[in-house]
Design goal:
The protein has 313 residues and is α/β, with parallel strands linked by helices. The protein has 13 helices and five strands. The protein has three domains: 136 residues, no CATH class; 53 residues, no CATH class; 120 residues, Transcription Regulator spoIIAA (2-Layer Sandwich), CATH 3.30.750.24. A five-stranded mixed β-sheet has the order 1-2-3-4-5. Helix 12 links the parallel strand 4 and strand 5. Helix 1 runs parallel beside helix 3 and helix 8 packs antiparallel against helix 9. The longest helix is centred in the first third of the chain and has 33 residues.
Length: 313
């Protein structure tokens, strides 16, 4: 069946249209993110209980393919379930056969036992769901997290908790992902920076040639930290050569590239030769793609020692 041929609230087929896609797009992204998070969390819990090790890529690819196919058979998006996974492991399940047997049993219950299940009182089902929800809430862990987690993580937790109760999980997950991303960028910006390496810090740098300055850049050069890392170096006065130790820069984005290009242009105008040392693979690829190759004003070296050696008379 085609999912968009199903009846909508008015009883008429929904119909595939751009308006339908835009209406469902935000919720679909939130559900996909929530499903990925819950499934990976379920896999981590299973690893801790069974002593195994899961493949996150395989988990997400399998779940994604299943959720793409299910709507064409009347199904809907699903995730790995922590409660049922834990129950399966406690019952002795250790291989992929266990969830297959579980799925077949549920399918048989729906197809064969549906008339009998209709006699179950809804009140008893509600009580059972309340018990399951309480067991999954893990109140002790929640309170422990509030006590020991960093304040920023506690804020994200309480915001998601409050939005889930006040609105729904789609809004809570969407806001939570944005907050977590902003906090991650803030932490990366805090650890990123540059410092001037003074004489005597190591034997290889104690005898720097006259007019040579070494700056060490640490942390990723991305849009949240590039300006902070470069602005200190830009204040360098008139020098013969500037050595940039970038062995601690694991990644660079377009903003970091622009900031570095601006620094190199300024040094070139001032007659300062720049030597970049210890460049890692990803930043090297970015510079190569930007055609920032060696020239009279720019040199690359495997390490700081090689750069200092090249500058000695």
């Amino acid at each position: 069946m085609l999912p968009w041929n199903l009846p909508g609230p008015d009883g008429q087929p929904l119909g595939l249209s751009w308006g339908l896609i835009t209406d469902l797009g935000g919720g679909a992204l939130a559900i996909a993110a929530l499903g990925a998070i819950e499934s990976l969390l379920s896999a981590v819990v299973a690893d801790g209980m069974a002593g195994t090790r899961h493949d996150p890529d395989a988990e997400l690819v399998g779940q994604g393919l299943g959720n793409l196919v299910a709507p064409f058979f009347g199904g809907f998006a699903a995730t790995g379930a922590i409660a049922r996974t834990a129950t399966s492991i406690r019952s002795g399940g250790r291989s992929p056969i266990a969830p297959v047997v579980h799925a077949l049993f549920v399918l048989a219950a729906v197809l064969v036992l549906a008339p009998l299940l209709a006699y179950l009182p809804m009140a008893s089902m509600a009580a059972l769901l309340l018990i399951v929800a309480w067991n999954m809430s893990d109140l002790k862990h929640f309170l422990h997290t509030l006590r020991v987690a960093p304040r920023s993580d506690v804020v994200v937790l309480l915001v998601c908790f409050g939005l889930t109760v006040a609105f729904d999980m789609v809004i809570a997950v969407s806001v939570g992902i944005v907050l977590a991303a902003l906090l991650f960028m803030r932490r990366m910006a805090e650890i990123s920076g540059s410092r001037m390496v003074g004489n005597g810090e190591s034997a290889s740098r104690a005898d720097l040639p006259p007019g040579v300055v070494i700056y060490e850049i640490a942390g990723p050069l991305f849009f949240g930290a590039a300006q902070k890392a470069i602005e200190g170096i830009a204040t360098v006065g008139s020098t013969r050569a500037l050595i940039l130790d970038m062995h601690a820069v694991p990644a660079m984005d377009a903003t970091g590239l622009v900031a570095l290009q601006s620094l190199l242009d300024k040094m070139k105008k001032g007659g300062t030769q720049v030597h970049i040392a210890g460049l890692q693979a990803q930043p090297r690829g970015v510079l190569h793609k930007a055609h920032m190759d060696e020239s009279d004003s720019l040199r690359f070296h495997a390490g700081v020692d090689a750069a200092v050696g090249a500058l000695k008379p």
